[in-house]
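To fix ideas, we close by showing one paired sequence and structure record:
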Amino acid sequence: MDIDDILASVTRATTNHFSPESVTIDHQHLTRLWVAERAVSEVLPWPSELMDRMMERVQKQVENIEDLTASSYENSNNDYTNTSGNNNNKNNTLNLKLSILQTDLSRTQYLIRSYLRQRLSKITRYAMHYLVLISPPAPSTASQSQDPEGGGGVKTEDTLPNPTSASGTISTTPLSKSEAQFLYSHQYLLASHYRLSFLASFPQQLRRLDDNAGGTSMIQGPDMREVVVVRCLVPEVAVVVPADEILEQEREGEVVMKMGEIWVGRWEGVKKAWERGDVEIL
């Protein structure tokens, strides 16, 4: 068996009911999302279908590696009793397949881990921003829990927006459901720590983490005016020129990118084009 036959057998074993073309496209898509997530200040929409397919393939890959490892171990034991060349060749072939599968699995796992870490980094950095974004509006008659340690004040953690407080299906876009649960748990523990450390000694009206008294909000969001590098993937695409102090309203259509051109621009100006798939972030 030559190297081409070995690679072909590995491809058939890893794709299962997925075609090689589908696997390649999904991997390229995930790579582009990973690059975009690293370059953009805000959290991009969670690709649920893509990640479901990728995790299913990872699980299948792990099962294939375990099966090949068991077969290689059995062949190694047989080599002690049978020294024929066929067994040695079969064992070498299995070891090569195992090496290829492990290398491919490590590459995919690194990509997924790095992608998730980038998202979690931004989620925790702008925790209150995304918590308010994905949570339903709080009822005006919400009850306030009393803090036995703070002299009858409101607990800071109980003032947090809760994305799971309302009944029915709630959209957590751009986060996944697991990320939304992590975000609320993380912020609840952090708010509880702040209250026990110093907020309990503050006046009641200053204990919230989303205070906007005096016209200044404590909630910090991502910078949509951050600069990104993009490449045009369609014959032409209009770039939005955002409004600023000089230009009072945004303009769209006056600046046009051509296919293959690489530009540096503000994220808010190319976001819609990226969502349509007209440009890719480099």
Remarks:
- The radius of gyration is 26 Å.
- The helical segments are 3-15, 20-39, 48-81, 85-125, 127-134, 177-197, 267-276.
- The beta strands are 227-232, 236-241, 251-258, 262-266, 279-281.
